Known about the structure:
The structure holds 2 protein chains of 2 kinds.
Chain A: H1 2-21, E1 33-38, H2 45-55, E2 59-64, H3 67-76, E3 85-88, H4 91-99, E4 103-104, E5 126-139, H5 152-157, E6 166-167, H6 174-184, E7 188-193, H7 198-209, E8 212-213, H8 220-225, E9 233-237, H9 238-248, E10 252-254, E11 263-271, H10 277-290, H11 293-303, H12 310-313, H13 318-323, H14 333-351
Parallel strand pairs in A: 1-2, 1-3, 6-8
Antiparallel strand pairs in A: 3-11, 4-11, 5-9, 5-10, 5-11
Helix pairs in contact in A: 4-14
Chain B: H1 15-44, H2 53-60, H3 62-95, H4 101-108, H5 116-127, H6 132-140, H7 152-162, H8 165-176, H9 180-188, H10 193-221, H11 225-230, H12 239-247, H13 252-279, H14 300-327, H15 332-337, H16 348-355, H17 360-390, H18 395-403, H19 412-423, H20 440-463, H21 467-475, H22 480-508, H23 512-517, H24 525-532, H25 541-570
Helix pairs in contact in B: 1-19, 3-4, 3-7, 3-8, 3-10, 4-14, 5-14, 8-10, 9-10, 10-13, 10-20, 12-13, 17-18, 17-20, 17-22, 20-22, 21-22, 22-25, 24-25
Amino acid sequence: MKRIFALILSVLFILGGCSALAEGADTKGTGIELTVYTNSGSSGRDEWLKERAAQDGFTLAVLEDGAGAIQQRLIGEAANPIADVVFGLNAIIWNDLISRDILVAYDAPSWASEVSEGLNDPNGYYYAIVKQAILLAYDANQVSEEEAPKDWPDLWENEAFHGKYESQIKLTGGTTRNVIDGILTRYVDPDGDLGISDEGWDAMEAFFANGTPVEDGVDLYAQMVNPDSPVLMGQMWSSGVLQYDEQYGTSTGVAVPEVGIPYAVEGVGVVNKQNDEAKQQEVLNFIEWFGSAQIQGEWCEQFGTMPANEKAAEKADPRQVELCSIPAQDIDWALVAANIDDWCEKITLQYMQ
Amino acid sequence: MVNAAPRRKPKWLTPWNVVMFIVFAWILLAWLIFPIANLLKTVFLSDGSFSLEPFQKLLKSKRAMKALGNSFILAPTLSVSVGIVGISLVLITEYFDIKGSAILRLGYMTTLIYGGVTLVSGYKFIYGSSGILTTALRGVFPDMNIKWFEGYWAVLFVMTFSCTSNHMIFLRNAMRSVDFQTVEAARNMGASQAYILFRVVLPVLLPSLFAVTILTFITGLCAMSAPLLVGGTGFQTINPMIKQFAETNNSKDLAAILSLVLGLASMLLLFIMTQVEKRGHYMSVSKVKTRIVKQKIHNPVVNVLVHLYAYILFVIYLLPVVLIVLFSFTDSKHIALRQLDFSAFSLDNYVALLKNSANYRPFLVSIVYSGLAALIVGLLVVVACRFIQKNRHSVGGNILEYGLMIPWLLPTTLIALSLMLAFNVQRWYMFNQVLTGTLLILLIGYIIIKMPFTMRMTKAAFFSLDDALEDASRNLGGGELYTFRRVIFPVLLPTIMAIAALNFNGLLTDYDMSAFLYHPLNPTLGVTIKKLTDDMGDPNGMAMTFVYAVLMMIISAVVLYLVYGRGGRDNMKE
């Protein structure tokens, strides 16, 4: 009898302890429905998340769309937000949303300290979950490492690469914008047009003038393996490398610039919204759960992404780890967020082919 | 009532008119004018004052000016080429006695079930640098330029054959109402076949031809997929640039300016056409119509040539569809390289799509939305057209007519944004209801974007109505509502249904409106498909878009058959 009593007590103690101190993946939801916006829900990720979260008591409505569309939607709905939580996106968009008062800062979840340094927002508006290296990729079956470009400027400075790389025809995508800011922020000049020196704009002009424009609806890898296409290299995001190599039989090589490469940091943030206390707590609980090493580890095993959480990174594919070990370029994201639209407008009007 | 001098003294104060006035004034103001004015204000006066800077930016941009120029080259030339092909399609299927015309017609109607990127991809499978025809030609001429299918002529070619949908429906309907007695009378008076065709038959088609030509012109101005996919660097048009600017926060002013230029050009053409239409009376004068009898072409050489022409067109129309269906069984790599390799065929794509029940929901959502929107916009416009028809020269009629055309002035993305910005706070004109996040807002959006097309085509149908029918009903004592309900509406019904079917099919794939307004739990098909080809998406996304395209072709075909296939046959009852 005593034993049973002790057992019950201990169970109660554990349960009680859980609700007060639960951390990471042990956090349980109460079932209050949360609306989650993300651009990182394709290939079944949204379905997986809904099911996985439901196992731990979270009820999610997930809206999935392109990063730009999510940004527009959040801005448009600012007066009466629908979303509770946003995840995915990239530093440029995060900073834009922060400047528009669309997000609220929140206390760091327990896993925030496990995230690689420099990826979380210093002001606590978002904490990183996935990092995506933005690469200059080529097909190593056709271009040797010696011949390959070492950095973006090689593409327009070395005539051997002229016409061999893809230049974009739409500047709304996240990868494209990261490539552009990776190049332009090397030429910051407060007196220059839109904060960029003439040298920087000349580089941008040459970048677009000497590339082969993207064929709409045909991706980079299809061009690389097509013998009739001159294209052998172009921009790529790290988590796509494995899947594309598998599908097209290519062997991706990447440039490793001395200045480093831009990373698209997918984070998780809380929407500035008048929620009642219970719901706000549920939002924070969900983030505590979602960013944990356990859940991020499962996510990366399932979808081949590179977790920002270093504990979860142990579960990542070695190739991903390798691609994402290239040092990050030092980029002033606030400057980029304030100017990227104007930069893209100028490029679209003046430099694009 | 109708006979004496009704147009001078419209009975404004009937309860019916008052209700109508309130409803339409509210729709025009609350759904269109207030939200758009609000958007334009935020776009142009973002710094508190109006500036000419965006105009200067555009004028300085060679690229923008060239693209704008290209759009203005494409629109009129396309109107002519589509007009010629469209009329010939109607003559082949409805006027001349061509062997196998029933099968030919099905081929010519394929443009009704697909469009956009999928359609242009279909053409690239044949004429593109690794397309079937190019590969075959290359076997004969190894040194040929494999990029021969690029630039203005390629765009014109693809669009000429893909923009004949309206001709196949509305012009064909008009052809069927040609009175055969006039043809016979002309023949008895010794007129030649060519003379009858050009002087007796074609003039009857003019009102419909005006209407569909305006649509073609606007399609040409707003060309998107064809220039992007086959225009090359030499022939890009302005709409892709507008869309990009509309999607970028700080560039919306440029998008608005550029699209207003296109919109005003469309309106100008519309105005001219409307004036021409008002001046002339193109109705068939016969009161007892006889169904047209297909004409055998007497000249044997011409006969063979026309048959040849008909079947070449058939192949041009059919091949892209066949290839899209075939390629939907392969993977993205084969699609991108345009290699039709039967060993790569599998049902994997279809299994992947159909085994996940979550994939069914977008179909259901889009079908319900598109159906409701097509129905509501149809009803609204019929009522509006009735009013316009009865008040042809009144200010109210004109305001209503042009008011419903406003959505043609701005790109869909901006209209969606205007609704989102307007309806996410309480507005007195929306009875203080916040609509963002509700299911209703997308429905309103869908209704709005289909108003101009519905308006233009329904009005054409109203104006080709024989006034005698209405007079007869009135003389027999039929009241206003009775005449409308029992006499006019049934005559117009086939056209109204056809318009509704076209609207339904168009909305089924909508992305631009859905993107900003869809309900979080109920994504539409367009949104689902767009995700497949997004940045950082699935490498096999392209193949999945083909599977979706095939499934939508099936839905669209079924809808067309149910609504139009049967309605079309009843068309000749009167």
